[in-house]
Design goal:
Elements: E1 11-13, E2 24-26, E3 33-40, E4 45-54, E5 60-61, E6 70-81, E7 84-95, E8 98-102, E9 105-110, E10 114-124
Parallel strand pairs: 5-8
Antiparallel strand pairs: 1-2, 3-4, 4-6, 6-7, 7-10, 8-9
């Protein structure tokens, strides 16, 4: 492999005919920490809470994944009866500030981003 094609990132997706080089790049592994509790209120009902954290790694982020750390809190409830279950969850995610780039050139800055998620899960046990 020629020196000019050597990856400077830990992982990348580099399509052969893509003119801008790597499509997605990640410099290092990322650790995510989750701490949660679940309490069964009755045979049918359960509630849960989850806190998640992903520390910042610094540097430039990928343009298709402009995230460099986050903090999230989720509250959930589940109803189970006769092998069927329905679960609901509400999440608030706050993303840490990051700058994206093409190679080593800064491209865009993301500040104060957050997401609110509603999840509904249906399941059945046989």
């Amino acid at each position: 492999m020629a020196e000019s094609n050597k990856a400077v990132w830990g992982f990348e997706i580099r399509p052969n005919l893509y003119p801008a080089g790597a499509l997605v790049t990640y410099r290092d592994d990322v650790m995510r920490y989750d701490l949660g509790v679940k309490h069964r209120l009755s045979a049918e009902w359960g509630i849960s809470a989850l806190y998640s954290q992903e520390p910042q790694t610094g540097g430039l982020s990928s343009n298709l994944a402009p995230v460099d750390g986050l903090h999230a809190f989720t509250l959930g409830a589940e109803y189970t009866r006769s092998g069927a279950a329905i679960g609901f969850a509400l999440s608030e995610v706050r993303f840490d500030d990051t700058t994206t780039g093409l190679g080593t050139t800064p491209f865009a800055r993301f500040n104060g981003n957050r997401a609110r998620l509603v999840t509904i899960r249906l399941s059945h046990r046989f």
